[in-house]
Design goal:
The protein is of the alpha/beta class. The protein has helices at residues 3-6, 63-71, 93-102, 116-122, 140-144, 149-163, 180-192, 223-230, and strands at 17-24, 33-38, 79-83, 106-111, 128-132, 166-173, 197-202, 235-239. The protein has one domain (3-184): TIM Barrel, CATH 3.20.20.70. Keywords: 4Fe-4S, Iron, Iron-sulfur, Metal-binding, S-adenosyl-L-methionine.
Length: 241
């Protein structure tokens, strides 16, 4: 029994794919990777930059063609990252990961941790995870519009840490969502749980973003706050988004 069938997942050919990026140097720190965007997400964050991927029906069953293009890039890429949407919403994710590994690629995942049990099932097929931590768990529903979403993210973080897989946590931040107290509290909460690699991603303004998500003023977050937060982690950075 191979890895694709042992996970009891849907066949890879049924995956709903919303697009892909052939080469990326910023989606997996230190590696050159392709990024596959899977359609579907259970959360409804008001600042979502991929609203077209919220519904699985908006994806296409195009894995055979994409698989051929990835095979042609063997030797040129270090790995393949599955993003979204929320890739854990895709029933075919285990089969996709197994096929990518069989091609010789390392596998990465971008996730908000919305499905802890599904994350546990695919952890043996992963080499790296970028876990989005949106805010303190109790404040999650104000962002995701889903009750209990903070507890799911916290459970996913615990599973990820227990697995021993390389990972980083990242938070997309904006003054309308995160004041200095929230950012300080969130960093301390992650550090207390043993997170070593953390990043803030500044929310990019865009035409699809409603108020109050106006462009972030220069100098936010304050340099002193960045220095204080950085002291909690082995690696910390602020990304333009």
């Amino acid at each position: 029994m191979n890895a694709a069938t042992s996970t009891n997942s849907a066949p890879a050919e049924r995956a709903r794919i919303g697009g892909w990026q052939p080469f990326s140097a910023c989606d997996w720190p230190g590696r050159l990777a392709a990024v596959v965007f899977l359609a579907g997400c259970p959360w409804r964050c008001g600042y979502c930059h991929n609203p077209g991927l919220l519904q699985r029906r908006h994806g296409q069953t195009s894995w055979p063609q994409l698989r051929a293009q990835l095979q042609a890039r063997r030797g040129l890429l270090d790995g393949v990252v599955f993003s979204g949407g929320e890739p854990l919403s895709e029933p075919a994710l285990p089969a996709l990961l197994a096929e990518v590994r069989a091609m010789g690629f390392a596998t990465g995942l971008h996730s908000g941790g919305s499905h802890p049990q599904r994350l546990a099932a695919v952890l043996p097929l992963l080499d790296w995870v970028g876990l989005d931590i949106k805010t303190m768990p109790a404040q999650y529903p104000a962002i995701t519009a889903v009750a209990g979403s903070g507890e799911r993210a916290a459970a996913s973080l615990a599973l990820l840490q227990a697995s021993g897989i390389a990972y980083e946590c990242r938070s997309t931040i904006h003054p309308a969502l995160h004041d200095d107290s929230t950012l300080t509290q969130l960093a301390a909460w992650l550090a207390q749980r043993g997170v070593r690699h953390y990043a803030w991603q500044l929310l990019r303004p865009g035409p699809q973003l409603p108020q109050p998500f106006s462009p972030i003023a220069a100098g936010w977050p304050a340099p002193a706050l960045q220095v204080a937060v950085a002291s909690h982690f082995a690696h910390f950075e602020v990304r333009a988004g």
